[in-house]
Amino acid sequence: MELVIIGAGGHSKVIQDMIHCVSDLCEIRAILDDKYDVLSSVHGIYEGPIASANYLHSVNSNLKFVIAIGNNRIRRLLAKKLGLPDDAYISLIHPTAVVSPSARIGSGTVVMPNAVINADAIIGRHAIINTGAIVEHDNAIGDYVHVAPHATLTGSVTAEEGSMIGAGATVIPGRTIGEWAIIGAGASVINNISPQSTAVGTPAVIIKTASNEAETEASKSA
């Protein structure tokens, strides 16, 4: 299978290493990033701006793509801007990850080394389940979510679209992390977290929301 990697930063490096681990199954055909001005071939691999993705897809519909960018909002922006069909994206799972046969993983999602995804978990599109993260049974993980290294989502947790679960954080069973919320590294979440808020600490406490950010900006400009 020939792959196109979108992004050439640190997260992309990890994904490239994952692909090299399964080089008998996958081959990197192109790396796209806006640091490149034009599409050109370097040692048999194309390098070019992100907009080249549509051209490459048009000339070879068998190519598979992965957006290798850690920022959740940028992943969503690029997925929507490029407009490639879902089946153009591949889900990448590292050989050391443990994934239940009953789990479902959306297109474009990446599961990093030593991650665990247990029974009946549902992972959305373009998500990141990072190194050593644990997604327990019956979790519902939305599109563009990032579960950072060694975070643990216990049973029946919901992480809505775009949420970020920081490194080493723990979410107890049955809790919901609202869309585009951020859970700080090492936090222990024992309550539901509202959308577009930031929660830190043990137990996790909301320290910022989209509404109070707007109020702060308004008071500064008053």
UniProtKB/TrEMBL annotation:
Substrate binds at residue 70. It comes from the Bacteria. Residues 3-82 form the PglD N-terminal domain. NCBIfam families: NeuD_NnaD. One of its GO terms (molecular function) is transferase activity. This is Acetyltransferase. Keywords: Transferase. It comes from Paenibacillus cremeus. Coiled coil: none annotated. Acetyl-CoA binds at residue 146. The record marks 138 as: Increases basicity of active site His. The active site is at 137 (proton acceptor).
